[in-house]
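Researcher: Quick test of sequence recovery. Tokens follow.
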């Protein structure tokens, strides 16, 4: 957890907006990692294995929530760490990060999984191992997701003017 804790926290933020449910999801991820660690056989890197389990638990969480509420989780504003920097630049950066997080939360679980792994700087081969997609398919999805996110993000800036 020392090595992957902050990455797992960002992952849970991508899967769940509600702080209480996010804590539960984080606990579920940690529990599943602990429970399945005996089965880790070294065929992939430890990082890839951790992400594979975490994303599986996150995707299961989204599907479970969808069944409960018959739609994806609500798009509540994400909690973020308090920004120690003050001023309009820090506020603008937080708003932009919140907007981007909300856009990512709207993605279907597989696309969300791909872009979160990409943002965690995993390569296409590792993302493919986690998701079951080919590295080529991962690269194409990343390109498409980035384009859609950029377009939606900039459209939001135009509406604010």
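Model:
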């Amino acid at each position: 957890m020392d090595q992957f804790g902050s990455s797992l926290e960002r992952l849970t933020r991508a899967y769940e907006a509600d702080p209480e449910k996010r804590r539960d999801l984080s606990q579920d991820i940690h529990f599943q990692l602990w429970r399945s660690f005996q089965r880790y056989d070294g065929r992939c890197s430890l990082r890839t294995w951790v992400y594979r389990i975490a994303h599986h638990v996150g995707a299961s969480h989204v599907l479970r929530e969808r069944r409960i509420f018959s739609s994806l989780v609500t798009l509540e504003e994400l909690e973020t760490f308090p920004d120690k920097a003050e001023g309009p630049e820090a506020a603008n950066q937080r708003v932009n990060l919140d907007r981007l997080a909300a856009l990512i939360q709207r993605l279907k679980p597989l696309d969300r999984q791909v872009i979160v792994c990409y943002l965690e700087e995993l390569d296409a081969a590792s993302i493919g191992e986690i998701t079951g997609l080919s590295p080529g398919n991962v690269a194409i999805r990343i390109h498409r997701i980035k384009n859609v996110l950029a377009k939606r993000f900039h459209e939001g800036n135009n509406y604010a003017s």
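Residues 29 and 54 are 5 Å apart (CA to CA).
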